[in-house]
Amino acid sequence: MAIHFQHVSYQYPSGSYQFYQAINDISLSIPSQGEMIAIVGQTGSGKSTLAQHMNALLFPSSGSVDIFGSTIRQKRDKKISYNHLRKHVGLVFQFPEYQLFEETVQKDIMFGPMNFKISAADAAELAQKAIVQVGLDETYLKRNPFNLSGGEKKRVSIAGILALDPDILVLDEPTSGLDPKGKSQMMELFTAIQKQTDKTIIIITHDMDLVYRYMDRVIVMHEGRLIRDESPDRLFHRKNLAELHLDYPETISVLAAIKAQFSLDIDIYQKDMDAALVELRRAVGK
Amino acid sequence: MKNIVIGQYIPGKGLFYRMDPRTKIISVITLMIAIFLLGSIPQLLVAFSVCAVMMWVGNIPVKRVIRGMKPLIILLLFTFFFQIFFNKEGKLLLDEVMHVTVVSVLGIVLWTIIWRLLARIGKFKTVLLLAYIMGIFVLFRFLPFGYSFTTFRFAIYEKGIEMSIFVIIRLVIIISLSTVLTLTTKPTDLTQGLESLMRPLKIIGIRSEDFALIISISLRYIPTILDEAFKIMAAQASRGADFAEGKLKDKVKQVISLLVPMFIIAFKRSEDLADAMESRNFVPGKPRTRIHELRFGWTDIGVGVFTLAALALTIVLKVIG
Ligand SMILES: Nc1ncnc2c1ncn2[C@@H]1O[C@H](COP(=O)(O)OP(=O)(O)OP(=O)(O)O)[C@@H](O)[C@H]1O
Ligand SMILES: [Mg+2]
After folding, report:
1. I need a labelling partner for B293 at 20 to 30 A (CA). Which of B40, B89, B93, B310 fits?
2. Which residues of A lie inside 8 Å of B (Cβ-Cβ)?
3. Measuring CA to CA, which residue among A26, A32, A1, A38 is closest to residue A235?
4. Residue of A17, A102, A116 with shortest CB distance to B240
């Protein structure tokens, strides 16, 4: 297992001598290969906090995390370098404003690789590859990152991590703030990367359509606890998702409504609209 | 980290919480002046007991007051030793010859290492520091062996001891007075009180409302900006620039990668705030109403009378003495 959580809890200090329990007793294993994992859960359920434990940005208040053979415990050990772990596990943050700082997009993307002792020439090449991957063209390389739109900034910040070529990719709400086409483009990119390299990709999202359509495994967080870790199919077959502040994918809810309204005999569990249409045609006998 | 900046205010009930911030500010200043007028150790001790009674009446947690003194311990120690070493009045109490020799210097190096090792453990840092300083003198005095570089005299006079105790008590009283103020007054109330007190300065062109607004916005935003700084540091660390690691050469780049987004975010935040304030009809310099009007109550009158009496008494003492 590439990343292994053992009874991890984390408390944020809040105010003097008070703490806020953001995640609570999480145990979890993530392989380095072959999975598209979604983390879902209501706002404030601890998803981002969990993600920051995966590349040793946060140190657990109790429990331990194994990351590619390094064990992360309560205190940061000053003698040990944790920096190399960030090359293994690439984490893209929820808000891109927090990292852009260079005067050109190109330099900003090169920042990561160059921190890991990759030569400037090679880093420039990586930047060029990454910017095309995230669906922007090369003219963006010369632009000032602060003049980009929100969605463009998001793409640049993803490119900045892709250029590191990490073994596991963790993305905190990578599709928020993108238009519908951009969303599916971005998801296609991640599935393509996953197919080509067989890397594990972890995506935090609120979008159940994406979860159902693209992911192999879904982790549900609720008030700091991990309450489900199963396939999206199993999750969406459950009846009481609203209690977890989750929703059903569009296809399931639309087909379920049609099924109830016209008492048709249809299989409502279809992953995308095309499949749903095929199933509908079959049911009405065309 | 955050709790330092937000201030020391702890929510609670009691005499001092019921007071108007203006009375509190003026009383604390007046009492400080009174303390400075006192001229002898017995008088200060009386003042000290009065302070203690006041804190007891006002339900002030003594632990917090002592903790408030921690950052000033170096200052206290410094004044203490300064008085002891350099005040050469009164009777001679102690006169020793100190030897700077090979052995005593070696001893001090060893002693320093022991001190640093013990300090690693963490607890009782101040006591350790004191023990360390005392230890140096003991070593200079009792290790006159080996090649002697030089010697010097170490003398303590009566007045030195007296003055150092005097100054320490005075400082302790003054620090506790101001701690009582900051412990029981919200930063926002404090600025509102200051604003109200400084209003007469309008005559010489200082607009106290602007001043108060600047302070309260800063107070409000310092924790937010700090939070943001931590987020930026995390984001850069995940691109391989960990602030806790890296050589000096990398540090420069790391600092830039922190400061640029910080400034951008701070400017953006201030623009947003300005827009939000203007869209709620804030016009700089125009009079504003308040949710919480400051109002004097019976406690204020009582404390005011007490303060004036204390000041009058010290003036009388000063004149007679
Ligand atoms: N820096 C911080 N200091 C104090 N509390 C924090 C901090 N960051 C997060 N929290 C708290 O921890 C809890 C979990 O936060 P987290 O960011 O992990 O939630 P999330 O699941 O990612 O939510 P969202 O879907 O809105 O991104 C929240 O209740 C939040 O208030
Ligand atoms: Mg989040």
Report:
1. B310
2. 13, 15-17, 52, 55, 57-58, 76, 78, 81-83, 86-87, 90-93, 95, 97-102, 111-112, 115-116, 146, 160-161, 164
3. A38
4. A116
Given a contact cutoff of 8 angstroms between Cβ atoms, the answer to whether A10 and A22 are in contact is yes
Q: Could you tell me the distance, in angstroms and rounded to a whole number, from the CA of residue B308 to the centre of ligand 2?
A: 56
Which ipTM was obtained for this model? 0.85
- Spatial CA neighbour of A113 closest among A164, A157, A156: A164
Which has the closest alpha carbon to A4: A60, A84, A79? A60
Which domains, ranges and CATH numbers included, belong to chain A?
A: 32-57+78-232 (3.40.50.300), 249-286 (no CATH)
pLDDT tens per residue, range A245-273:
888 998 899 999 998 888 888 888 888 88
B162: Cβ–Cβ under 8 A, 6 or more apart, which residues?
Answer: B41, B90
Query: What is the pLDDT at residue A16?
Result: 57
Mutate to test the pocket of ligand 1, among B227, B228, B231 (most ligand atoms within 8 A of CB): B227
> At B154, which helix (H) or strand (E)?
strand B148-157
Binding site membership of A53 for ligand 1 (Cβ less than 6 Å): no
pLDDT tens string B145-197: 888 888 888 888 888 888 889 988 998 899 888 888 888 888 888 888 888 88
CB contact under 8 A, A90 and B238: yes
The Cα–Cα gap between B300 and A95 comes to 49
Q: CB–CB of A93 and B250 under 8 A?
A: no
DSSP structure class, residue A237: H
Residues of A in contact with B232 (CB under 8 A): 98-99
Report DSSP letters for A209-228, one per residue.
Answer: HHHHHH-SEEEEEETTEEEE
Q: Which amino acid is at B36?
A: F
